[in-house]
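User: For my dataset I need records formatted as: sequence, then structure tokens, nothing else. Please produce one.
Assistant:
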Amino acid sequence: MTQQRHVPWPGNIGPQARNDKATAQNDPWVGERACSGTTRLLLEWASKSSLPAPSWQAIVAKTTQLDQRYQRWRWTAFGVTWLIYGSFYLTRKSFSVAKIAFPDDPDVTLSRADYGLVDSAYLTTYMAGQFVFGALGDRFGPRRILVLGITLSIAAAVAFGFYRSLLAMAGLAVAQGIAQSTGWSNTTKVMSSWFSLSERGRVIGWWCTHYAVGAAIALPFSGYLMTTFGTPRSPAEDGSEIIPYWPAGFWGPAAALSVVLAITYLLLRNRPEDVDLPPIE
């Protein structure tokens, strides 16, 4: 009787290349991790193995399908989390732009020192919230926390446009700080679940462009809306030709973030296991 030649399972399939070979031979799906070269490696392995053609062809067909699903879902996670964090800057920067127009509104009596208090209320809450919402993301899942944070950010931005007092604005700044603090830890948790350690540096490098792009868009976007919905200044008044309508600097970003909320709810998944895919590592 001719002894069948043993061909080891390829050790470099997928981003995680350190799976036990014996385990991989018993379960071909252990170690498969959304790598574009997976199908090619499987073909090489199967062509040298003693498996009958129908068996390895079925393995290759299923792995190809798995690879395509993995790629689709992981880049969806990349795009949605990039959009979430970049869009958070729309409502984060609204007060910075709107306060420039406060002197033109006689109902707003805040001083420059008051502006600093509102900013401090936001930043202090934003800092403290980082310690809370990272842990909550571990317990309840980042998707839930992000949906909650985006919803609160929208509500705080909308309410900001209706209030003129220091107390109200400081309170809404606290609410906005809570909302914004849900973003970083939970978007990075999603990314770590979809991209392996061996590729994470390169991917995160591209992904971290979100805050620069978001900040670059947020300021002129709010300013444009305030000017567009402003009113002409009378010839007797000093200043620019348009009196900016500062509430638009809050409401426009809130409307844009509402679209991101819908996208997050519909498309974001915490990890591969949520869509019946194997974990990345």
